[in-house]
């Protein structure tokens, strides 16, 4: 089975966008080409700031839903705990 990912993007207007995909790098590229979610099209460029890997798309979708229920402050804590001192996310 193919790996799936949930991810959080920081948009140019400093808002967050959360989604899921089975090809993380391709999905980020699509977002930045203006072909991704309607929400991100007017908020380019976007930068990936967080992701998690899952064994199935069902697990990824469940986690995406959980993250979307978090407050911005809770999302910031989640991101802070997962990034390095420069705030970068490694693929």
Tell me what you see in this structure:
By secondary structure, the chain is α+β, with helices and mostly antiparallel strands. The protein has a single domain, classed as GIY-YIG endonuclease. Helix content is 40%, strand content 23%. The chain is built from four helices and three strands, in the order E-E-H-H-E-H-H. The protein has helices spanning 24-32, 38-41, 57-68, 72-82; strands spanning 4-10, 16-21, 47-54. A three-stranded antiparallel beta sheet has the order 2-1-3, sandwiched between helices. The radius of gyration is 12 Å and the shape is globular. The two termini are 20 Å apart.
How is the topology of this model organized?
Elements: E1 4-10, E2 16-21, H1 24-32, H2 38-41, E3 47-54, H3 57-68, H4 72-82
Antiparallel strand pairs: 1-2, 1-3
Features of the shown structure:
4 helices, 91 residues, alpha+beta, 3 strands, 40% helix, GIY-YIG endonuclease
CATH superfamily: GIY-YIG endonuclease
Widest sheet: strand order?
A: 2-1-3
Structural class given helices, strands, pairing? alpha+beta
Order of helices and strands: EEHHEHH
Q: How many beta-strand segments?
A: 3
> Low-confidence parts, pLDDT < 50 over ≥5 residues?
none
Strand content: 15-25%
Which word captures the global form? Answer: globular
Mean pLDDT, to the nearest integer, reads 91
Q: Helix count, per DSSP?
A: 4
Number of domains: 1
Question: In angstroms, what separates the terminal alpha carbons?
Answer: 20 Å
CATH topology type: GIY-YIG endonuclease
- Major β-sheet profile: 3 strands, antiparallel
Label the CATH architecture.
3-Layer(aba) Sandwich
CATH class: Alpha Beta
Radius of gyration, in angstroms, nearest whole number:
12 Å
User: Helicity level, as a percent range?
Assistant: 25-40%
């Amino acid at each position: 089975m193919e790996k799936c990912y949930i991810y959080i993007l920081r948009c140019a207007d400093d808002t967050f966008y959360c989604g899921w995909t089975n090809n993380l790098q391709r999905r980020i590229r699509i977002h930045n080409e203006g072909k991704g979610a309607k929400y991100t099209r007017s908020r380019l460029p976007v930068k990936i700031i967080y992701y998690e890997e899952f064994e199935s798309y069902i697990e990824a979708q469940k986690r995406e839903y959980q993250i979307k229920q978090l407050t911005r402050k809770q999302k910031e804590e989640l991101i802070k705990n997962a990034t390095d001192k420069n705030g970068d996310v490694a693929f």
